[in-house]
Amino acid sequence: xxxxxxxxxxxxxxxxxxxxxxxxxxxxxKYRIIHTGQHYDKIMSDVFFDELEIPLPDVNLEVxxxxxxxxxxxxxxxxxxxxxxxxxPDKIIVVGDVxxxxxxxxxxxxxxxxxxxxxxxxxxxxxxxxxxxxxIITDSxxxxxxxxxxxxKNILLSEGKNLNRIHFVGNVxxxxxxxNKSKFKxxxxxxxxxxxxNKYSVITIHRPSNVxxxxxxxxxxxxxNKHENILFVFPCHPRTNKVLNQHKIPNNLKLITPLSYLExxxxxxxxxxxxxxxxxxxxxxxxxxxPCITLRKNTERPExxxxxxxxxxxxxxxxxxxxxxxxxxxxxKSTKIPELWDGETAExxxxxxxxx
Length: 356
Ligand code: UD1
Hints:
The chain is α/β, with parallel strands linked by helices. The chain is 43% helix and 15% strand. The protein binds uridine-diphosphate-N-acetylglucosamine (UD1).
């Protein structure tokens, strides 16, 4: 069986790592790792391959940054050329919901290659998010669906997908988290900022709907200013960095460059609270049992709120203020780990692949 494993952006690499480590143990699969080049900086890409022990990609399509549409189109053209100039695999595995996921899915479907989507069926029902469009289209043309939750399975069933093609297997992102937990690496800033366990908060904000909203930053900084005893550490995505230059940064907010996977998760695992607009981070916080606040109106990962550590608050900064107090007075809700988020998901996927 020949398979192309597709990855393009930071969260993809984390999911790819789990699949790679499971697939390499089985001789019946011959695979190529295809990096689209959506993320290309050392700290946004190379460091993930290095730390997560993924071999260098067999092919890098080197698309780089452009508009959402141009980037997606460029990936499609380049991947199509690759398939035509080398070979067409039996199957293509795409993960998550980034532009690379969508682009390679379309090429697979149009080339008659069996398409497999890992992390299928999740929905925010918010078409303003580029990721939601990517998920809906990818699922509409996938042949097999691996889901993180039963809820995602039910969503796919309600959309008319065939039960035999939907496999509830758990979460590959958590495979990678658990595999690397003992290797988390203390970042240099942990010592230089003299951080103490549970006494600081981590912030990550990168979604255009927040980043490009001036009012969002004014209100967020006003709220952080009310908690002068807490240090907020913010590893900054390149897009966010560009915008923050225009704002007055509170004294208790430390902006730092993006961290590597092992460093970021060290920082989160020792923190008292994470404030984010990422989806993957809410899953990791749930498993690391760290209080988490999501500054979004919706989530495609409701289990992180219903049974995990996450609270979804939109842009309600009064509530943010209250929840910061709650987190730092050890008063967070009690939580559980979602079903099958146990570190064995990629193994389950490979077992199913051997039969389809
Ligand atoms: C992408 C995903 C998002 C995911 C995020 C993780 C889509 C639609 N979005 O968003 O779901 O949560 O990755 O980080 O696919 N840039 C660099 N260096 C890089 C990569 C990007 O400087 O290595 C800068 C560029 O200026 C670029 C901007 O960051 O314009 C955004 O990158 P892009 O890949 O378009 O989307 P992300 O916001 O990273």
